[in-house]
Design goal:
Largest sheet: 7 strands, mixed
Strand content: over 45%
Helix content: under 10%
Distance between the termini: 39 Å
């Protein structure tokens, strides 16, 4: 059974870049035809799908976030990563990585000076 684990700083200053990594075990991120997603949930709000990277390395982004979001992968480490640039306090949320019903536990990221 695939397991996902998010990692990264819990506190980011406004205007900086938020960087998170998802480490995958129990399955390869290159296995056809899975998509590996980043999802977030701001406090008091619903889930927001930010984007995904596919088994072949192609990427997909939410139109509202596309201009400052980047998702990449390191197949040698079986990891995929999220970078969100120019963050504001509105980017404060619990960030999850996920694949087809399997989710990481989530990591809290707070944007504050």
């Amino acid at each position: 059974q695939v397991q996902l684990q998010e990692s990264g700083p819990g506190l980011v200053k406004p205007s900086q870049t938020l960087s998170l990594t998802c480490t995958v075990s129990g399955g390869s991120i290159t296995t056809s035809y899975y998509y590996w997603s980043w999802i977030r949930q701001p406090p008091g709000k619903g889930l927001e799908r930010m984007g995904a990277i596919a088994y072949d390395g192609s990427t997909y982004y939410s139109p509202s976030l596309k201009s400052h979001t980047s998702i990449s992968r390191d197949t040698s480490k079986n990891q995929f990563s999220l970078q969100l640039s120019s963050v504001t306090p509105e980017d404060t949320a619990v960030y999850y990585c996920a694949r087809a019903g399997s989710w990481g536990q989530g990591t809290q990221v707070t944007v504050s000076s």
